């Protein structure tokens, strides 16, 4: 029972993060796209990325809401958070002035804080995967 509650709480936090991030990007679409155009890593794909990234974030959040797709959503979250973290690290290595394409409150974080923030949600995703797999295994053994 504890694992189920922990999984639900982890998913809740991840859903909040991805829905907030996606809508923040969509509501400030023009600014988000301009910031992507300033990034040497994604500038050639800024138009596609500006729509695709929020769509993926919303798909992952949706997958986390349904028990049947929760594990898929947790893996999606792990992949997204890994990609975001690697992007920040790469940008810090390559660039001195970095455009932040994050929205809202997250934009106020320093790059070091941003990495820690991402690592926290990366760890939550990994923990959720372990707990969800454990829960599925124990449920299957009971049946």
Tell me what the structure shows:
With 143 residues, this protein is mostly helical. The protein has one domain. The chain is 78% helix and 0% strand. The protein has helices at residues 2-27, 29-37, 46-65, 70-94, 111-142. Helix 1 (2-27) packs antiparallel against helix 3 (46-65). The longest helix is centred in the C-terminal third of the chain and has 32 residues, at 111-142. The protein is elongated and about 55 Å long.
How would you briefly describe this protein structure?
With 143 residues, this protein is mostly helical. The chain has helices spanning 2-27, 29-37, 46-65, 70-94, 111-142.
β-strand number: 0
Largest sheet: none
Q: How many angstroms does the end-to-end distance come to? A: 16 Å
Number of helices: 5
The rounded Rg comes to 16 Å
Layout: helices, strands, pairs:
Layout: H1 2-27, H2 29-37, H3 46-65, H4 70-94, H5 111-142
List keywords for this structure.
143 residues; mainly alpha
